[in-house]
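Quick question, first post here. What does this chain look like in 3D?
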Amino acid sequence: MGTLLLIISIWSLFVGVIDIDISALLSSGEGMELKIFLFSRIPRLLAILCTGVGMSVAGLIMQQLCMNKFVSPSTGATIQSAQFGILLSLVFVPGIGLWGRVLLAFGLSILGTWIFVWFVQKIQFKNTVLVPLIGIMFGNVLGGITSFIAYKFEVTQQLSTYFVGSFSLIIKGNYELVWLAVPLVIIAFIFANYFNIVGMGKDFSQNLGVNYKLVLFLGLTIAAMITASVVTIVGQISYIGLIIPNIVALFKGDKIRGTLIDTALLGALFVLGCDVIARSVIMPYELPIELIVGIIGSLLFIAMLIYKLNHGKKAIRLRKAKEGTCCE
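> Answer (accepted):
Ran it through. Tokens below.
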């Protein structure tokens, strides 16, 4: 996956309305192409990689802590909470700036995620489907309130950019916030074993001497901060945190430390592939990446459900060819 990601990353730098070749970049007379390469193509690639890595890891953390494979930033009301925080900044403190908007998105996304977890913990008898259903319902309530306030204060056009994910406006100087995903993913890797223990339940964690509430708060905060940073810069992108951890789990199991790197690589590869498709389908125009991710992600999710219905929790094994076997 790392090799494939590197190849597609280099290829994506030369996909766009304006054709750029290596010889033009190396020549000193082609200043415009060099500026496009440095100020648009490279920042866009970095934003794509950080988004794919961050959202997939955020989904992995939420699924482990909530003990449910259908929980993700999109089904746990995290994205909707971040959008609500952005709305509040646009309506009540319009001059707060980017970082103020980000802080509001951080705070509301963390609060919304915690309310969702509180709802889930109050349910005595819960199954696999009920938990994400609660998150979807809670997210729809937040989305309805957000739309109502946006219509009332006439900021729907400003807010619409945060509802549909797109990398078309990414340029140098307005995307660096998504780099926050990198240190947060590193922190998640450091505390991966603690997330595994907390995922076993409160009693199990306390028996091993792990502070259940502290680790739970840390994990959900990491997931919420990654989601808020992506939504603030790129907009809403669904399915990444839902399907990528599940696909990796089919091959490598549920242990976070053993799957986190694979989840990050596959998430980056998935988003990058979708972005290349979005730029190429109706050239010279560009489709929102949310549309491509939604189509491909829904198909992958259906295929994954069919596999689990037919095989249960059995993992996919890459079988090696047996040569020269014999028995004595």
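Residues 319-328 have pLDDT under 50 and may be disordered.
The domain at 8-310 is CATH 1.10.3470.10 (ABC transporter involved in vitamin B12 uptake, BtuC).
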